[in-house]
Amino acid sequence: MKQTVFVGGLAALLFAASLARAADPLDAITAAAQADKSFSGFSAARGETLFRTKGKDWSCSTCHTADPRNPGRHTVTGKAIQPMAPVSNPKRLTDPAKVEKWFKRNCGDVFDRECTAREKGDVITWLRSLAR
Amino acid sequence: MNTSKAHAGLRSISTALLYLAVISTSSVVWADGATKPAPTNPVWQEECGSCHIAYPPRFLPAESWQQLMGSLEDHFGTDASIDAGTAATIETFLTRNAKRSKTDTMATDAPLRITEGRWFRREHDEIAAAKWKSAAIGSAANCGACHREADKGSFRERDIKVP
Predict the structure, then answer these.
(1) Where are the domains of chain A?
(2) A78 and B8 in contact by Cβ < 8 A?
(3) Is A109 on the interface with B (CB under 8 A)?
(4) Rounded to 5, what percent of chain A is helix, strand, coil?
(5) Are the Cβ atoms of A94 and B27 closer than 8 angstroms?
(6) Is A57 exposed, middle or buried (0-12, 13-18, 19+ CB in 10 A)?
């Protein structure tokens, strides 16, 4: 019985690993942004502005700090948040499902709406452009 | 560019491992009930431990967890929504390991906050009201500010250090 579960689990793992090829979160976001005919590429400068723009009560930098190479802090709960810029934290912006989940939540919490594909691409482009 | 793709691959493999671990964790729980100290579950830890510590299920009755899990899109003023499958996994884990009795310790039948329970207030009655709001703590819900091992599910007296 235990062995069946183990073998089944292993098969599931190998299957998942084979699906795990190169999914850059920006790929799907780029495809979605291109659906708009006027799209002419992402802009790090626009991304930076959006990140620091205050919505209802907060901006993105309220929790992630104005310089996302630094660790942040959840403004309500006080919990520490690892840096958002990949240069400080290479795990960032690598998992499409995680990235989409948090854009949906955080754009809702900050701007009371979802962010557009272009806005998401702008922010990712800016975060990835940050160097030491 | 290539390195970021490699990271994406690694990340997905670790996600797969996470789900594999869930399968084994839940079978342990089914096998011997709630006798294990500080029951844990990697999906719960990841999803419910991102904005605050993952509050241990033993601090609220099952009814509270059900209500919390049914209203994640408006969760204390933030959006904590997750897909239905993940939510079901977490709800099962929480309700199985929930506080057993509710009437003796809680102000209402299904409080949504641990920090509003009578038990919580009694346990923390020596802490002044102003202390909770100090910069280093911010909120009574920030258990980890004083319970240094809270993120590991431990609230023992010897790990307490009020800042």
Answers:
(1) 24-129
(2) no
(3) yes
(4) 55, 5, 45
(5) no
(6) exposed
- CA-nearest of B62, B51, B38, B59 to B120 is B59
Residue of A nearest to B78 (CA): A109
- Residue B73 is classified by DSSP as G
ipTM exceeding cut-off 0.85 for this assembly = no
- Is residue A94 predicted with pLDDT exceeding 70? yes
Query: Mean pLDDT of all residues in chain A?
Result: 89
If you classify domain A24-129 with CATH, what class do you get? mainly alpha
Cα–Cα distance, A51 to A63 (Å, whole number): 11
Take residue B56 and report the two structure tokens written for it.
């241990």
Residues of B in contact with A94 (CB under 8 A): 4, 7-8, 10-11
Residue B101 contacts A where some CB pair is shorter than 8 Å: no
Cβ-defined contact of A105 to B80 (cutoff 8 Å) = yes
8 Å CB contact between A128 and A29: no
Residue A93 amino acid letter: L
Q: What is the mean pLDDT of each run of 10 residues along chain B (163 residues)?
A: 46 47 38 57 96 95 95 95 96 94 58 89 91 88 94 92 93
- Give the C-alpha distances (Å, rounded to integers) separating A45 from A100, A130, B42, B146: 21, 11, 37, 40
